[in-house]
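EI: anyone free to look at a 846-residue chain?
SC: sure, send it
EI:
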Amino acid sequence: MALKKNIIANYLGTGYNLLIGIVILPLYLGYMGAEAYGLVGFFTLMQVWLNILDLGLSQTLNRQAAAASATPSGYAHFMSVLKSFELIFFGLALITVAVVFSGSAWMAEHWFEAKVLSSDDICNALQLMGIIIALRWQTALYRSGILGFEYHVWNNLVSVGYASFRFIGSLLLVVFVSNDILHFFYYQLLLAVLEFIVLRLKLYAILPGNLDRRWRFDLLAVRKVAPFALGVAYSAALWVAVTQLDKLMLSTLLPLQQFGYFSLVTVICSGLLHITYPVSVAIQPRLTALVSQGKIAEMHLLYRRATRFVAVMSGAVVVVMVVYAEPLLFAWTGDKAAAAWGAPVLVWFALGNAMLTLGTFQYFLQFAFGSMRLHVVGSTIAAVLQVPIIFYAAVNYGAVGAGLAWFGFRGLFFMVWPPIVHHRFAPGLHLRWLLTDVLPAILSTAALILLLQKWWPVAMDNSRFNLILHIAFISLVTLILMLTIGFISEYWRKTGRLPAMPSGVPTEAEIVSQWSDQEPTVSICCITYNQASYIQQTLDGFLRQKTGFAFEILVHDDASTDGTSDIIRQYAARYPSLIKAVLQTDNQFSQGKQVSLNFVWPLAKGRYIAFCEGDDFWFNENKLSRQVTALDNASDADICFHPSIDLFPDDTQQRACYLGSKAIRVSYADVIRGGGGYMPTASILIRSAVLKHLPNWFSSAPVGDYYLQMLGAQKGGAVYLPHAMCCYRRKAENSWTLSTKGWTQQHVVKVAQAHIHVLSQLCLTSATNHAADFDYAKSRELMLAAIMAVRSSHFSTAKTLIEQSWQCYRFAGWRQPVLYLARHNLNLLLKAKTLFNVPKPEVADE
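SC: here you go
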């Protein structure tokens, strides 16, 4: 409850501060003038830049506050750190004020290009800015400590009150008292003093009263936290350089009037970054806690959900900013000159900030693992590359050029850097994160921008009130559309997700009581090796089947060493008439024997055979009954299958092998071309007659399932049922997918040759009109073998295999032509995971 309350408080506080700023700031422009407002914008910019001198001490104090109650001496240590930091801040504040005072006259003459304001007014305003910033700087230290003690609600209440006095009070001042820029800054100084006093008193009120509160500098305490503080300070400095350099350059390159317009644009664009703030404040400690508890899968889920939410929300905001930039600025400011000047600038900075918003999530991921080295490297690279690019664009092309360069660089960095971070901290996550969490929002945003520009323009000749209503309505519609798209994306992502399994497994007597006869109709064949973590769920899925016919369970364990065989023995003892266990003492697969063909299938008594490996499982209790009914009603078909749910190590799920929502008959040609993954192994039900009349070449098949699929579909195709009823674990321990990574160069070639031989034999017994289908299948297997060779860095072998694939059948899938074109430089493609993700040819017959 405390976490939720803090999240809500953060959203309300941030939302209020953002909203009141958006409402009030353009009114300053009207009452104070563009040049005076330009100084207000410069004041905001300087607060951000001078935060570099914080040296990471505020965040360090926040961390110390959070840890203060963990140890008996925690509060005393915190007080020592606080007193030391206060002295450091006080010294830095004096230096800052002195530097600002000494340089204010020069800046007033040479930095700003003003026509209305005098140099003396600008000089005095800069001096007031220096004092105000120094006070707010010290106030930020106290706020960090208060937040570290989790007084979020109190902090947001004070923040709301302060923002009201700051914005509404300032507006009343310039409207009814004086619009002099110096009076404006004197009022800001008064508020800064009051805020400093209130927050300092609150922080000291939180601390126990028996602590030593005398002024002192504890060098030992400071040295202890210095490495963390300096690391944070360096990252903060890079962040400021990356996000604020363009604004600093434009403050001197643009006339002060135009910089005032530009400041309005930055206020609107900052709304995108504010979308992530409440989320980051809420999820950062939770991500860290999940990592520390070893709950990596839960951490990945939270990380992805937060990304999806922010992507949808920022997408909705970007659509309105890009399509209605000029009417939005005019409706906001009432100044047509500001709107016309700022519209093209707003478009590019909004798009760039949207990319930056999505890129912040990699920071959260690294923070959760407590490793910021990669973040520092990335930020350094970004700063080194971005600074000259933005500088060149700003000097030569002004604000629009800076905005375009900002968007281009952020977009390019987003494409390059997140894969690197994910590879380090969440291997295998990036493509799913990009394709299912981010890309739908990006594509939806782009589509809405194009559609609204064409079909829903807003005329600039409307009154401001009508414009506000019009844009507000469009914003609401856009938000609803984006949220709808997000919900649809989430629905499709979750479609067929694993349902909650019933608690408990029926007894043998309860299962047998459902049967109308005792002769098994279905033989369930399960092979396993070192899958103790999964085998219980697999067996429970078999035993939960509700059928009116008898079934038997044949389980073969190939001399596991992790206790798998012990679990099977326990189940066989509890279900003696159902489970027949074949427990090897020596591993048969390592001796070159085909386990299913030699030890399992010959024991099957049923009219139908169902398959499921020991790391997969069934989750629908009606799976067998549905499939048996389907094949009983399709006498000319020998095989039946259905979609599966792929379960990844991080517990994310996606539906696989989905061919539509209706039961259909799949052609033999489609099965040939589909490859081993066309039918999930755990979904297959096949007539036992097919297994009893296997051709001689079957014993030389490198993978059993693919050829069973084709033999089963040879007579009358395959029956497809639309319900997902089984789960296939991706990258499970001791799975086929992981085992292929250890294949030698010779083994890869041997497997490819075996596939070509078996496909050729099967082609001879099939109708002649399927010759092209078998050429496609051969080409595909050669391509997959080439991919395995690339993954093992056997590039010459891979080149030969991909050339053979191309000769056999061209354009056998999208990856083949890419590999063929790059066959002389395959090493450059090694990190392209989409290209080299080899699908499982669904059961390699151990």
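EI: The longest strand covers residues 520-528.
SC: 👍
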